[in-house]
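Morning run. Coffee first, then this:
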Amino acid sequence: MEKPLKWVEIDLSAIRHNTRWTLARLKGAARLMAVVKEDAYGHGATAVARAALASGAESLGVLTADEAQVLRQERIRAPIHLLSPILPQAAREAVRLKLTPTLDDLRQAKALNAAAPAAGLGVHIDLDFGLGRWGIAARELPDFLRGLSRCRRLRLAGVSTHIDYVPGKNAVEAEEKLRAFRRLAQRLKRDHPGLVCHAANSAVLMDFPHWQMDLARVGNLIYGINPSTSKTAPLKNPWRFLARVIALRRVIKGRSIGYGSEYVTPRTMRVATLPAGYADGLTMEPAERLISFGSGFQYWGMLGKVKTPFIGRCGIGHVLVDVTDAPGAAVGEAVALPVRRTAASHRIPRFYRN
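And here it is:
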């Protein structure tokens, strides 16, 4: 099949490799949840979910019931956790889709209790240890648990937290918060046998593997992204965004190019136009594409193994690149571009390789 002007290639064998590598890091009875929120970080939730489950993940993590519904419509029967709290009016849909909700408010609990089947519904609660997005403060937990106990159809099945850890910045503070979470979780386990405790995302799993507890919620590692600044991982990149050269010109030295006449050619150059811009998600990330360049920064694509630096400002639908040092540059040739995965437009077709 002929590829279009721009497209994304996703290698599912890389997803499977990364899932198996992550699973091998887990100790004892710890289980793996594949986080497929935001359309699996732009890779396609259904395809990634199937690949991860086939490679050993036992459950899936999403943010909303709408995300979960896409998976259920594709006949994915694995356990699906809602990692963020739901609105009370979404309770019936969460029950219908057989999801495991995360709670931090008794209004959610009451709505779920009213919608739950007679057999009951397992729920998780989230504790806030500094991230501040949602979660129950430790001092509020006793009152919350008393209220939850009055919801007779709900069963406390898990307790979680998402700490504010950034690799290389707040490791000591992060470990203190993980210890505090474990103390609370252990007390809860005494009253709720079989309670699943989880705090490890990709960054925690890499830098604090001893805190993996009962379940690791992993997104970045599955997508080939190692968040650690101190540890390496043999991950494979499943993602490539490509755009074809649609115009190729020779530009003499000293000519201004692009909006605002901000770029002046330092030499006679070959300049290629690519049909991708910020409407497609072409941003100044990811950071690994970033290099210091004089007083500013420079970004580039790749034509084969040759870097093709950006020239001037990125437009809404086009970008210019320097292909002077890329002898293979020609109209129709594909250049790989540093598009942020979660920002890549859904208009861009995805092609999957197994």
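The chain has two domains: 12-223, 239-352. Good start to the day.
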